[in-house]
Amino acid sequence: MMNSISNNYTEADSVVNKYINHGLLLVKNNYLTIIILDYIKKSHQNDPYRTLVEVIVAVIGLYYIIRNSKKNSNSKTLRVIDNLSPKEFDTLLQEWEPKPLVDALPTDSNGKYQEKLVELFQWKLKKQPIVTKFNDDKISIITNEDPSSEKKDLFNLSHYNFLKLFNNNKYKHRLNDLTRKIIKNCGVGSCGPAGFYGNEDLHYNLEYDMAKFLGTERCVLYGQDFATISSVLATFNKRGDIIIADKLCNVAIQNALQLSRATVYYYDHNDMEDLERYLEMVFEDEKADGVLHRRYIVTEAIFQHNGQICNLDKIVELKNKYKFRLFIDETLSIGALGNTGRGITEFYGYKDRSQVDITVGSLGNSFSVGGGFVAGDAIMSFFQRIGSNAYCFSASLPPYCCGVASDIIKILDSDNSSIIQLNKNTQLFNELLTKKLKTVKSHFIVTSNEKSPMIVLKMSDKFRTKLFNSSVLTIYEDMHQQQTKQNKVVIVQEPFLLEEKFIQEEIVDKLIDEKIMIGLQPYSLQHESLPLLPGFVVSVDANMSTDDIEYITDKLCLVIGEASKKKSI
Amino acid sequence: MHNVLVDETKAYINEIDSVSYTQDQVPLLPPLNTTLAEKRELEYGTLTNKKYLVRQKSRNLQPLKPIKFDPPGILISVITYLNYLIIITLGHVHDYIDYYFNRDKFRGILEQNGIAPWFTKFESFFIRRMKQRIDDCFSRPTTGVPGRFIRCIERVSHNMNEYFTYPGTEQLCLNLSSYNYLGFAQSEGVCTEYVINNIDEWSVANNGPRNLLGTTKLHVETERLVAGFVGKQDCIITSMGYSTNANFFNSFLNKNCLVISDELNHASIRTGVRLSGASVKPFKHNDMKALEKLLREQISEGQPKTHKPWDKILICVEGLFSMEGTMCNLPELVKLKYKYKCYLYVDEAHSIGAMGPTGRGVCEYFGVDPNDVDVLMGTFTKSFGAAGGYVAADRDLINRLRLDLTTQNYSEPSPTPVLSQIYSSMKIIMGDLNPGDGLERLSRITFNSRYLRLGLQRLGFIVYGIADSPVVPLLLYSPSKMPAFSRLMLERNIAVVIVAYPATPLTESRVRFCVSASLIKEDIDYVLRHVDEVGDMLFLKTSSGIGGGSLDGKPPRWNIEDVIAKTPEDCKDDKYFII
């Protein structure tokens, strides 16, 4: 037995020896080994120091590798979880109390509910109007507060659809028939992203039509106006690029600035001197650095917050002087500004859009079908189609939206009577409103430009101090504190809700009794990173008659006058 | 007066039909000259035999087995990398030559008048030298309904896809490209009638953001219906699916929160989370062990630097992954969620309507109570043939979001036709409208998905995904096989979608078949025959059998006739699939 085992050992030994010898021979006789050995020999003969240097380099290299691997293993042991026993982890887990996913009700910064806030919040939710019927220009609404009582046939002044072509007697049937016809031909949805069979002939043709309409080389369609801006700005910006934006830009732009990762400077609202100061600063900085970054001026045509119109002439002059690109958000102004609805450039008398590098507009407001678009030069459009997330990763617009929008462009091209009418109405409305507001000693001020069809009214600061014991400064400070705390989730809405409630009860509700529907400006307070104040919107549209405007301004001023007389609440 | 207007309108509409076009623009094509019956057949094929229906079964909380991805083999991997190497090298050589001898071509990516280019030479390299070479396989213009057949507008590529011309002809292709899972992309039938009727009653035009005065009774009714359908208390409908995700997370997450996200999550989720400022930690696709490890690590570690505990941890997954055809392992996720006090967010963009015995999505498919998932998000673009998306959750939460969400306050609302399409198609799936139709659609898509998947696996292709998923990705690996496959399929009148980096890992280029309920068994036969032929030409049959298609573990290489003869029956049996 023993013998056989030892026999086996010797046998195995000899086999191993044989293989080792064989292996050594292989190594010795290997062509590669011979070359290497030869090389070492020769280099040693020629330059003995070189061998020394090479050995030292090899040793240092090895040392580095070992040190780094040690470091890595050290950092792994630093993790807390490795030092915890399962039991300890369980207690840790038990002690951890995550916050609720969404605070169902507004809380203060300590996480406590304030009864008054909760009440206000629920009131605001219930006050949301729901349209029950469209009757030409009139609408009927109910609210969740009182679903049984329907307020019928109100003048609709709470929208961004300034042209109201779908209610225009001349085009109503044409547009509705076209919608029906396209749905009968193409169905409703497009069932695919633009890159994969989602873009139909109607999409392409709207892109051609829109580019021709605006006077740009190309145009790209998006599924929603709000998502367009953040997607396109993020495509053409990365770290190091520079954006100079207006302080009062809307939330879509603010989101875009956040996503773009660029360096952002804010200039005072519509203050061209301030803008120039920043432009000069950036221009000089870049010159000194010697690196050329993409630089943009970002502004809105009609500002959503206050209805002001940007000073395009000056901006274009500055942009050319300091070599910046210009980005304009025309969400509200396409179809509403200019003699044929071509937006801010036409309003300022430019022949085409060559001065505006990126135009973002909405098909959801004056075109009132839905969707957004970006117009600009061919190269930008080409890169956008692969780089822009909202274009690549989402389904394209329903085909009927495109067909109808194309037709609306044709209407605007051939017959601009509705825009002329809109401009006339805007002028008349503004004239009457300012005149009548003076007579009633109004504490509400029109903040919008007199050419803007969206009229925004906000409370005067004197009145605010009297009624709510707060002023612009205290509100800004309050918001600023909350925003610096980054407690986005538990933001207190107090500076707003009381004031909004006042406007709602004293103005909006009373106007509803007079058969006029106006709306509070909608806000997502916690997403606004810039100061703002509550107000209400009165939208002028092309279908109003002079009598309507007389009646509406009369009632509006009457109600505002009443509200302005309030001493306290 | 009124009559005159109507006549003018008609004349105008006729005029649009005969509009002339230039060759370098996509022409507007007139509707097909067919009878109503033919049109219906083109949009939604009539079922040829009752045999070709399969009801999906609920898994009754049984979790998924770990997925086995078939490895491509060393030869394929080497070829793929070599392929990229050649393309990139050639691209740089081209760039070099063009830069010195053909500067005109470079105008767009060089500095001009002191203004930096939109994209630099480096940033645009992938687009110019790789994507543009196969641009003819993307963005093919179509017309009409993307139903069973899709009408592709023919185009001629010039100068390496620099521009296209359009001769004005069209090609009728079998549609395996649209997300028309339940076949609701129709221009005839109950849904369309409902939509048309609602247009007469409600204005097509929208009326500003939801919180201004954009909410109509239709919105309220549709939201109620959707909430009931997915099994949640309330929901919010938005007008775009991408935007639903991209503008959702910033309403309740901040930098003290952690999002644990599947590595293959959709770009919209990534955008949304980035906007919220929350920390993000990815985990390996569908790897529940890795997820648990990560959770334990993060809970014990807390926030970086301060080591304070996280405010909340949200696990983000997709119900059905659009590029893989795999599903999230919901029962396991729910267990982990409760064990580690996290919140669970499931994006059902592809699964709602298509998965589950009655189309109610992943929760129903796994037999999980929808209340165990905190937020269910989905889109209407896919199964319902409409547009937009929804977020469904508890009533308190939704009420809070109604005032907070940016999309509610600033973007346009869903228009009437879209809402009507959602309402009517959902009613059909629920069986309230046109009884029997919804069930047939659900059974047809399940049969079609199973048949196509098992058929391809048996032929020897590497196919990802679980049995019932309507997304059937076939792996091509090598980037140059993508355009070859797409062009060869188009020659055979089949429209398919090819996807590559950045939507997939660099080496896993694939073709994605999107199965629809509107296809009939004979259509799938046709597809299988042609894919079989093309697969031989392109050397695609490389599966080893561990990913499915063979019971004995040997590489399956069935004959096409055997596949078509046996698979329609076999595909009803779970034992042939790895699930």
TrEMBL record, chain A:
Which Pfam families does this entry report, sorted A to Z?
Answer: Aminotran_1_2
Pathway listed: Lipid metabolism; sphingolipid metabolism; Sphingolipid metabolism
Q: Which cofactor does it need?
A: pyridoxal 5'-phosphate
> What EC number is given for this enzyme?
2.3.1.50
A GO MF annotation of the entry reads: serine C-palmitoyltransferase activity
CC per GO annotation? endoplasmic reticulum; membrane; serine palmitoyltransferase complex
* InterPro entries for the chain: Aminotransferase_I/II_large, AON_synthase_class-II, PyrdxlP-dep_Trfase, PyrdxlP-dep_Trfase_major, PyrdxlP-dep_Trfase_small
GO biological process annotations for this chain's record? ceramide biosynthetic process; sphingosine biosynthetic process
Family of the protein in this entry = Belongs to the class-II pyridoxal-phosphate-dependent aminotransferase family.
The entry's protein name is serine C-palmitoyltransferase
Print the organism lineage: Eukaryota, Fungi, Dikarya, Ascomycota, Saccharomycotina
From TrEMBL, chain B:
| UniProt GO MF annotations | pyridoxal phosphate binding; serine C-palmitoyltransferase activity
Pfam families named in the record: Aminotran_1_2 (PF00155)
Q: Which UniProt keywords apply?
A: Pyridoxal phosphate, Transferase
Q: Which residues cross the membrane?
A: none
Q: Where is the Aminotransferase class I/classII large domain?
A: 173-530
Top-level EC class as recorded in UniProt = transferase
Q: What CDD domains does its record include? A: KBL_like
Q: Name one GO cellular component term.
A: serine palmitoyltransferase complex
GO BP of this protein? ceramide biosynthetic process; sphingosine biosynthetic process
Cofactor section:
pyridoxal 5'-phosphate
Q: Does the keyword Transferase apply?
A: yes
Reactions this protein catalyses? L-serine + hexadecanoyl-CoA + H(+) = 3-oxosphinganine + CO2 + CoA
Give the matching Gene3D superfamilies.
Answer: Aspartate Aminotransferase, domain 1, Type I PLP-dependent aspartate aminotransferase-like (Major domain)
Listed EC numbers: 2.3.1.50
- Family per similarity comment: Belongs to the class-II pyridoxal-phosphate-dependent aminotransferase family.
Q: What is this protein called?
A: serine C-palmitoyltransferase
